[in-house]
């Protein structure tokens, strides 16, 4: 047996070596390709990206031809550098820098020398390309925007950097990739698949035909088209209404969670991030640290929600059975919660129930409801955690899970949060009473506010907001068709909805009614603080408004927040009414509101940060 062991090991080792050689030489051609790098030239064929449509089939984003000058450093020999630089309007220093960068990437592989030539530049260079060995022109497609709105939704296309190449081997130097918006989220669907051709070269570096008769070549596969949930006309109208204002608008179809409009202001024309000026324009937008056009306020900005939050305070009180529809509190133009501590209220006062508490927006009523909710439990920590759980069942205090890259959680405090702030205890319901009216430690993003109203419109459930409606040859993610049910029983939503309806009939939005549409809404004014030169300064309040319509069988839920907009009914309310009418009727009857919103500007308020002019403190 021992005599057979050594020969057996030799035979096994020989078989393993032969198997490995067979794999490397016959099955796996990668090593051959690497060793033959000097003799084989790789050419990529880039597919068109998929088109993007709106919910009504309107084409939003198409493609246009673009031309990149590619360079293979080892092949650059005996060219007239001065003529080359003059032809492309670059300096000799730029030329040297670009060649060195390409050589670092690979002296033997082509990489981008100058990207995105226009047709005239391409024609001029193509005419003389034979004089510049080592250079070639690669045709690509760039985005061609059919609309001037929705930049924050689309995102943009840019060249991959070294970090992306390391993480994602599919991409090579000079490749394009989607960044931000749906271009990033649906990159693998939209980009398609590159085609690859292997070209055999002789010892004189001349192309002599396909390598191995093209058996390794692949053809480019065009990217797939996608349809968004966005209504392009509504998006366009929303962006027009927000000119010379800062803030966000989010409109959602309640029954599906489909985002109808996602407006951030200020915004920009997506076309400026296409072509050779893209880098300069992006830098200009990025460096605008005051207006922040790249900052999507609809998804990222966390604001105190103000009075719209009273809706949830009331629902939690009903669910916890500390009030019913007829529970009455007396409002003496405010709520006293301690010695010298008084929360002002601008409602007419008197006996307040849930119904008129909503349409009069009574601070005292909802402060009492919140206090009872917390004090139902024998310790305030248990009450706060019960209240917090109800709020979070609406998707608050957490990422929404929508299909766009940026997001913020907002904040719904728990007992642990207050234990950190008050390590020795001593906090109670009145310590945190500001939460009852959407101030205090509560913050929400506009998309969370819109989703809150969609949930109320649905009487207790919502679908995760999303912008994808259809993908060619694919199904959309199941999470967008999964129903989320709140901790509030359905029976408690109808009385709240009745109160929201009367906000438009006899309450704080009575002047914003639209003939023929039953709108349920809630005005809000959110206090606004910032730090200037290290000091906490109160700025002009934000204008907040939330709504849905029609009252029965709702088709649209909306949240509008206008920074420094004084109070809810002044800016956010009119914009909400106009957006609802535009979506449901397609025409506008409230031309008085439209004229005021289209022509109105809040730039004088935004200038106060640097001018030193006092801010307007409304205390509404």
TrEMBL record:
Which InterPro entries does this chain map to? Beta-lactam/transpept, Beta-lactam/transpept-like, PBP_dimer, PBP_dimer_sf, PCN-bd_Tpept, Penicillin-binding_protein_2
Instruction: Return the protein name.
Output: Penicillin-binding protein 2
UniProt domain Penicillin-binding protein dimerisation: residue ranges: 46-208
Q: What's the main place this protein lives?
A: membrane
Gene Ontology terms for molecular function: penicillin binding; peptidoglycan L,D-transpeptidase activity; serine-type D-Ala-D-Ala carboxypeptidase activity
Q: What class of enzyme is it?
A: hydrolase
Keyword Transferase annotated: no
Q: What would be one Gene Ontology cellular-component term for the protein? A: plasma membrane
Q: Which UniProt keywords apply?
A: Carboxypeptidase, Cell inner membrane, Cell membrane, Cell shape, Cell wall biogenesis/degradation, Hydrolase, Membrane, Peptidoglycan synthesis, Protease, Transmembrane, Transmembrane helix
Membrane topology, from the record: Single-pass membrane protein
Q: What is its EC number?
A: 3.4.16.4
**Superkingdom of this entry's organism?**
Bacteria
Q: What region holds the Penicillin-binding protein transpeptidase domain?
A: 247-575
Its lineage opens with:
Bacteria, Pseudomonadati, Bacteroidota, Flavobacteriia, Flavobacteriales
Report if keyword Transcription regulation is assigned.
Answer: no
Pfam families documented for this protein: PBP_dimer, Transpeptidase
Q: Where in the cell is it found?
A: Cell membrane; Membrane
Output one GO BP term: peptidoglycan biosynthetic process
Source organism (scientific name): Flavobacterium supellecticarium
